[in-house]
Amino acid sequence: MEKPPSETDAAAHPDNRIGTHPPRTRLWRRGRVVAEGFPVADISDHLELPDTVVWLDLCGPRDGELHVVKEELGLDPVAVEDAVSRHERAKLDRYSEYSFLNVYVPDVVGGGLRMHEVSAFITPRALVTVRQDPGFDVDELVRRWDDHLRIPRTDDPRDTMALLVYGLLDLTVDRQLDAAQALDDDADELEELVFDESFQVREIQLRSYRLRKNLFTLRRVALPMREIAGTLLWRDADLVTEPLVPYYRDLYDHTLRAGEWIDGLRELVANLLDTRIALQGNRLNEVMKKVTSWAAIIAVPTAITGFYGQNVPYPGSQQHWGFVLSALLMVVCSAGLYVLFKARDWL
């Protein structure tokens, strides 16, 4: 398989051996790609040139392997620690010279929800993305950047940086919406199971538990995206330039949609579980009603045979007509109760 053009040659440059996969680099000048796959150590040299923006992507790096990046960009040790640590919350932290972004890109696989954590250091002219695992499709991110290059903007490097950050956030929110759609489909299947005549209780319980767990996980990483997009749009004017404002507003609307969709699904699942309990109670009442009706029917011949089984003389005792009369009473009374219960829909 041919390696991507932006992937660096770790064999030729030992300093590029960072993380589990070779780093990827790209250089834009005045909004156009002019170099790819250059060594990490050359980042500072490229940044000395005017009108340039650099992207560096790292996959699964350890804290000790980021010394080159820290030296090249002057990153704070606290932010670097957050980038290499797993399970940091989704957030946007502002430092004096740069911002630190942490997001989660979901992926629905086999009914389970898998989260790919992606961190990013956002400087005025450099973007460093740090992936915790190779599950995040960085090629899709690059394709989006290439497509977004057609967005009207100036040759200001701030526009290019705003576009790169927008592409990363747009991909993240789109994947969260895709996950919400997949969970919505699971909710539809759960609804069909709840109202199915077979009423598979164990399957319903398993699916409802898995769905609620996935919704909780997705909500935990999707809701902070609203704050991140809002901060970039209204409180961090240094990053979002005027040509990109409409696109960040659209991104903010998508974060609102994702949060509302997930909250709506959580309410739907809760209502389905309440409906399941109500249906289960109704089914139990139907069973109890039928059992009670049959018990009443059986009680009639039991009472009659018990009466005629007394060890004392009674009308028809030791007589053929007495047996016929008792049998006739059992048939007539039982049939009468059956017709009555059937007419009242108890059987």
From TrEMBL:
UniProt keyword Nucleotidyltransferase present: no
Residue stretches of biased makeup (Basic and acidic residues): 1-18
Membrane protein topology class: Multi-pass membrane protein
Subcellular location: Cell membrane
Span list, region Disordered: 1-23
CDD domains assigned to the protein according to its UniProt record, in alphabetical order: TmCorA-like
Segments traversing the membrane: 291-309, 321-341
Domain of life of the organism encoding this protein: Bacteria
Keywords of this entry: Cell membrane, Membrane, Transmembrane, Transmembrane helix, Transport
Protein family per UniProt: Belongs to the CorA metal ion transporter (MIT) (TC 1.A.35) family.
Protein name: Magnesium transporter CorA family protein
Organism of this sequence: Actinomadura miaoliensis
Lineage, opening ranks: Bacteria, Bacillati, Actinomycetota, Actinomycetes, Streptosporangiales
